[in-house]
Amino acid sequence: MLNLKDKRVLILAPHTDDAEFGCGATISKLIEQGSEVYSVAFSACQQSVLKQFPSDILITEVKEASVELGIKKENLILLDYAVRTFNYKRQEILEDLLKLRSDIEPSVIFMPTMHDLHQDHLTIAQEGLRAFKFCTIFSYELPWNNLQFASSSFSVVTETHLKKKINAITKYKSQAHRNYANEEFIRSLARVRGTQINESYAECFELIRLKF
Predict the structure, then answer these.
(1) Who's near 93: CB < 8 A, 6+ residues apart?
(2) Rounded Cα–Cα distance for residues 59 and 95 (Å)
(3) Which residue of 3, 25, 63, 71 could cross-link 161, Cys pair, CB 3.0 to 4.6 Å?
């Protein structure tokens, strides 16, 4: 089993809730094991927030969710790209990623899969691979956007880790209308992935590159 203990980890989240949905339990686990975890969200999706919420609500929510997972306040990085425009901003995004590489010097990256259907997610995956091609890279699972996903790597998580993920996601009141933003779905997916490796719970990743 690959040991990521004490590694410097960077999570690439196109939108503010992607880190929690894609690898929230693993984030909690890594922090518990002593890894320094950084998370960067490229957009708070202000253009698509439901009208009954303040347009910047996702900024508040991601800060609360990060605290729940154990991410240090100073390790949460929020950028301000407009949702669904990332493919027009590739060079700027790549420059941001290269600055993160220089400033943080991570050894492990978590990012969306190269098969993600959302244009913002795909751009982050493509530019993330370009910027961090000499690091270990895992792609996290977002089933509602993934027509293809190679279940090549598993992170065994406990009830405690999973509960932290669930609690973090419940901070996103503005996203509660989505059919995957609920405890039943999150637990079901964790059980399915756990069953695949004879464990109670797991999160699944595509292993893109491995450096050890």
Answers:
(1) 42, 81, 86, 123, 124, 127
(2) 22
(3) 25
d(CA 64, CA 76): 11
Residue 114, amino acid: M
Cβ–Cβ under 8 Å, residues 41 and 79: yes
Q: State how far the Cα of 198 lies from the Cα of 110, in Å rounded to an integer.
A: 24
Going from N- to C-terminal start, the domains of the chain cover 8-209
Grouping H, G, I as helix, E, B as strand and the rest as coil, residue 87 is helix
Relative to beta strand 8-15, strand 108-112 is parallel
To which H or E segment does residue 110 belong? strand 108-112
Q: pLDDT tens-digit profile of 110-150?
A: 999 999 999 999 999 999 999 999 999 999 999 999 999 99
Fold that domain 8-209 belongs to in CATH: Rossmann fold (3.40.50)
Q: How many helices (H) and strands (E) does the chain have?
A: 6, 7
Q: What DSSP assignment string belongs to 116-178?
A: BSSHHHHHHHHHHHHHTTTSEEEEEP-GGGBS-----EEEE--HHHHHHHHHHHHT-GGGTTS
Contacts of 37 (CB under 8 A, 6+ apart): 9, 10, 11, 27, 30, 31, 70, 71, 75
The whole model's pTM is what? 0.96
